[in-house]
Design brief:
6 domains; 3'-5' DNA helicase activity; binds adenosine-5'-diphosphate; globular; 7-stranded parallel sheet; binds zinc ion; 22% strand; alpha/beta; GIY-YIG endonuclease; 37 strands
């Protein structure tokens, strides 16, 4: 008898044993997927991690349905890494497997599939089985995989479905929900052959008898001379008072070339930058120091001020690993940042750059997965958000974690709740690869690790091209309000500086922290504020849709015309979100072009890119936005950054509030003055003397670090203590209260280390579930592994108490 040990894509910590036939045994390898029955009637895609002869003692092993791969698609390094994640972050290996793989590779009987909307299907190319499925989907818009099992009357159907997905005929239902279709902007440029002087003469000759076309070409020259930026077809037609037919004629004649704003899927033309990248001497010595540090240490922190040219240093470093034929993983905190970066990296590495993140379609993700698996040169460098670290690397040489301080590297939900920076360091270790962590404002934990010698530390304190750090001016809001110098949320100082920047043709960024400042509706008669019926929060007012919405569960309603509590019609809006800032700006600067970047305006696959591009192309003069603005964007024409209100970041009840405020303000400020001219930053605050604000003004990272480190030690927080946070949820308030008390008390009795709680969090009910949290603080001199074991034991016994079984408990190790 032959058996395989498999991981199921379910929240189960155990692996399961299935039996395989002699023939299957001869074929099967670790890392292949198999379709297996589970429970009464479910089918799942499981992963083989062991082949053995040990009959399970507790249950009768069932047979697998079918082997799904010809070659392993997951390697042993990955499996080892996933096991580490499961153990360190206290989650099921099944959760890691499920989170790691593109869902198209994890078909199961409950998966819902649909026909792709736009594709043309040549029915004659379909096999009989394929045709049956295709036909069934003409009758119904979607099918469960289980339905297909019934239609074809056989169990082994995953490969057929997979084929139809590869052929782009089927898609998973989850993708269908992403209905957004990107609108790309069309640009034109003159064909390269006409760029020279002789070319120009030739061009005029060609157009001698085509007046309309000539007009448009002349307009093109005028525009490109005056604007010095890419020219959209729309603009060209407007300024020449022409039509798109004429533009098309010129494209057909190969006088113009059309192109679309580069997205990260656009294929690179194949030409790498001719002039080699020249590092400044500061960059060059930094690069040498990093290499030097790699001799002794595997991880190096690159602490470089904003705009010091860290990306170029990474590029040079990557070059070395490319030569050694190693794979490179480049992690970014925000997928939206990939477009800019991919453009920059493709300039140097051509088609060696692949991108992987969750906004990609399944087919695209599967494609990158396979390229990495085969060590294809097309994916030698992979840029991605955190999930890219699950790809099947077999020969990783270097990991770059850019903006390592960003909290988005930590996955919150669902499990696995891993930190991509930390998990990638472990991954690199298995590969014996090197890691460079980059930031202008490193996290306290990372800087601590560098100070204590665990990581190498390399600093670069000058901006590239000797651009000066921006000048930061504080505006005291108390004083401004007292002296009536405020218009809405704008001080006279800020208004003046904006006007000044605009008059010089420079751009402005205004930053409004998202937290707690969403606008709400309040009744002036009775003070009632509409609440979400399912969550413990006020509904947020969205002006342009005239809607109230819950940011936690998505509940929405039309804005009421009268108060639901007292029927009064006197309602007012309170709070000050980005939308309100934008409104005020429109009144203050009626002629300025104003853009907004927040969660609302950046939905969809290219939402963020569109806003960034229009700002880069100077179609937008003032950009108002939330935290998204703080993340490593590079604009060369921004001379002013305004922080609307520094205080709402500072006074957030979180031990990282001051660290984050420092990071956010410094990062946003760093968007100002990235070319020759010194930029300016205005920070509006009620507390100009606050230590953190003073540290921002004086660019005093070390001061911030020391102060925060001191506090962390006193109040028992990282890096001196590891945090494990337990979150309990249940619909019944009393049961939850009892259950969390039980859990807390058992922990108290078992530990001498601090256990805090059970606490009602500020938002104590979401989607009708009440929430309580318990925090465990583990000093670094105590065994983390041992403590986790005890916690797990306690959780197991909690699970055995019948009245608490329905309470959901989630564990967050290294709570961020
Ligand atoms: P950081 O990531 O440190 O904030 P960037 O890498 O974005 O800084 O660099 C800031 C700007 O300086 C970018 O526009 C970049 O293209 C430019 N730059 C940096 N180093 C060089 C170099 N060696 N040659 C040319 N341009 C450079
Ligand atoms: Zn009322
Ligand atoms: Zn809600």
């Amino acid at each position: 008898m032959h058996f395989v040990e498999v991981i199921l894509p379910l929240s189960l910590a155990k692996t399961f044993t299935y039996s395989v036939s002699e023939a299957e045994h001869n074929y099967i390898q670790k890392g292949m997927r198999v379709a297996v029955p589970f429970g009464k009637s479910k089918i799942y895609t499981a992963l083989v991690i062991e082949i053995h002869e040990n009959k399970p003692s507790l249950y009768e092993a069932r047979e697998i349905h079918q082997i799904l791969d010809e070659k392993p698609i997951v390697n042993e390094i990955q499996i080892a890494h996933w096991q580490w994640i499961a153990s360190y972050y206290m989650c099921a290996i099944g959760d890691v497997y499920r989170g790691a793989m593109p869902s198209a590779l994890l078909l199961e009987s409950e998966t819902i599939i649909s026909q792709k909307q736009d594709g043309f299907v040549d029915e004659s190319l379909l096999s009989d089985d394929e045709f049956l499925i295709y036909q069934a989907l003409q009758q119904q818009s979607s099918l469960k995989v289980q339905d297909i099992v019934n239609i074809l009357n056989k169990k082994n159907i995953f490969p057929v479905i997979q084929k139809l997905m590869d052929k782009n005929i089927l898609v998973l239902q989850e993708e269908m929900l992403e209905t957004y279709t990107p609108k790309l902007i069309r640009y034109v440029k003159l064909h390269a052959k006409y760029e020279t002087n002789e070319g120009l003469g030739e061009l005029l000759e060609v157009l001698k008898n085509a007046n309309k076309q000539k007009e448009i070409v002349l307009s093109y020259f005028q525009l490109s001379a005056s604007e010095k930026k890419p020219i959209t077809v729309k603009k060209l037609i407007e300024s020449a008072k022409s039509t798109s037919t004429i533009v098309k004629a010129l494209i057909d004649k190969e006088i113009f070339e059309e192109y679309y704003i580069q997205t990260d899927r656009v294929h690179f033309s194949g030409k790498t930058k001719e002039e080699q990248l020249q590092l400044s001497s500061a960059q060059q010595s930094t690069l040498e120091e990093i290499k030097q540090s790699f001799v002794q240490k595997d991880v190096c922190l690159l602490h470089g001020v904003t705009s010091s040219g860290k990306t170029e240093i990474y590029i040079k470093l990557i070059e070395q690993y490319i030569k050694e034929e190693k794979q490179i993983l480049y992690l970014l905190p925000e997928i939206a940042l990939t477009t800019q970066l991919v453009g920059r990296l493709r300039d140097y590495f051509g088609n060696k750059v692949a991108v992987f993140h969750s906004k990609y379609s399944n087919n695209e993700r599967v494609e990158v997965w396979k390229q990495v698996l085969e060590q294809s040169p097309k994916a030698q460098i992979v840029i991605g958000a955190r999930s890219a670290l699950f790809l099947p690397f077999s020969n990783l040489g270097l990991v770059v974690v850019d903006e390592e301080h960003e909290q988005t590297f930590k996955q919150v939900d669902p499990s696995p709740r891993y930190h991509a920076r930390d998990a990638s360091i472990v991954l690199a270790n298995i590969h014996q690869a090197k890691v460079v962590l980059g930031s202008a404002t490193p996290s306290i934990e990372t800087y601590f690790n560098a100070q204590s010698g665990k990581y190498g530390l390399v600093e670069i304190t000058k901006r590239y091209g000797n651009v000066k750090m921006p000048e930061i001016e504080l505006v005291d809001l108390k004083d401004k309000y007292f002296r009536k110098k405020m218009s809405g949320h704008f001080s006279d100082t800020l208004i003046e500086e904006i006007a000044n920047a605009l008059s010089l043709g420079e751009q402005v960024i205004l930053f409004q922290n998202r937290r707690g400042y969403s606008p709400i509706i309040e009744c002036l008669t009775c003070g009632h504020v509409p609440q979400c019926p399912q969550c413990d929060v006020s509904l947020t007012f969205h002006k342009h849709k005239n809607q109230l919405r819950c940011h936690y569960c998505g509940y929405s309603m039309a804005k009421p015309t009268n108060c639901h509590a007292c029927t009064s019609v006197h309602l007012t809006t309170k709070g000050f979100g980005t939308e309100q800032i934008q409104q005020e700006l429109i009144e203050l600067f009626p002629n300025a072009k104003i853009g907004r970047m927040d969660q609302d305006t950046t939905r969809g696959k290219f939402g963020f890119e569109k806003i960034i591009d229009s700002f880069k192309n100077r179609e937008v003069e003032i950009l108002v936005g939330t935290q998204m603005l703080a993340k490593g964007l590079d604009f060369d024409n921004v001379s002013l950054v305004g922080i609307m209100n520094a205080d709402n970041m500072l006074y957030h009840p979180d031990f990282r509030a001051f660290e984050r405020s420092y990071q956010m303000m410094t990062q946003v400020s760093g968007r100002s003055g990235r070319s020759e001219k010194q930029g300016k930053v205005i920070i509006q605050t009620y507390n100009p003397e606050h230590n953190t604000i003073q540290q921002v003004v004086h660019n005093n990272y070390i001061g911030m670090y020391k102060e925060q480190l001191y506090e962390r030690q006193i109040y028992k927080y990282p890096p001196y203590f590891k945090l494990i946070k337990l979150t309990l949820k249940h619909r019944d308030f009393d049961k939850l209260k009892e259950g969390s008390m039980w859990l807390y008390q058992v922990m108290q009795q078992n530990f001498t280390i601090p256990v805090l709680g059970p606490e009602e969090p500020p938002i104590s009910r979401i989607r009708n579930e009440y929430i309580r949290t318990i925090m465990v603080k583990i000093p670094t001199n105590q065994s983390l592994q041992g403590t986790k074991k005890t916690i797990q034991k306690i959780l197991n016994s909690f699970d055995l108490v019948s009245q608490y079984r329905a309470i959901k408990v989630s564990v967050n190790v290294d709570f961020y």
